[in-house]
Amino acid sequence: MLPRFLQRLRHRLFGGDTSYDAGLENEAVFWRRALADGGRRWNPEAFRQRMDPGFAFPPHLQELVAASPAAASDPVQVLDVGAGPLSAVGFHWPGRRVELTAVDPLAEVFDRILDDLRLAPPTRTRKAAGEDLLSVFPADRFDIVVCSNALDHSRDPLQCIRQMYAVTRPGGWVFLWHYRNEAEEEGYSGLHQWNLDEDSGDMVLWNRSARHSTRAELGPGAEVDTRSDPAVPRAIVTRIRKPLA
Prior knowledge:
10 strands, Rossmann fold, alpha/beta, globular
């Protein structure tokens, strides 16, 4: 696979199929290659973790649980949106039960890949697009809704945010982790049609024709806090708290 900067240069100089649907096909091809050798050419440690039934529920999400009504409930209900074939969230929390649900619009494709490779992850990804979560789950269903490096790959990230917020329980959290301005970095090719960025603590979604504020979209009741991730260059973290009813 070409380095990213060479892919961007090729797209700009020579064109080719840079459509969203072509990006979905490329995503499926990527994951088949990434998982075919046990993740050795992709990320061996990430592969090992995501296939481990003891994959730890991360401390930053434990902190959000502690700051929500879920601190006193069992099990903790977690949704991973755009999870890919192997969720990166984790679910083992000593002394607590975590029920992890993973969804992705390509889940059927991922099922075929996993079956072909005879891989059985601890959590199977279900088919659901971020834009249509309420067609699959009831409102106020999950304590924590997570989307990592996937929101900017969606057809309509603003609608995804609305839906993630809707299926979050009052007092619960939406947790987002993404790189800044990936559409600009990727030359608006494939799945990269939207940029995500931080503006005065807000998360803004923009491309060449539109710009949206997460705070303005969700209204004054929502607490939106977006910051740079000090551990990862160009990454931003957004925490959205849904008010108690």
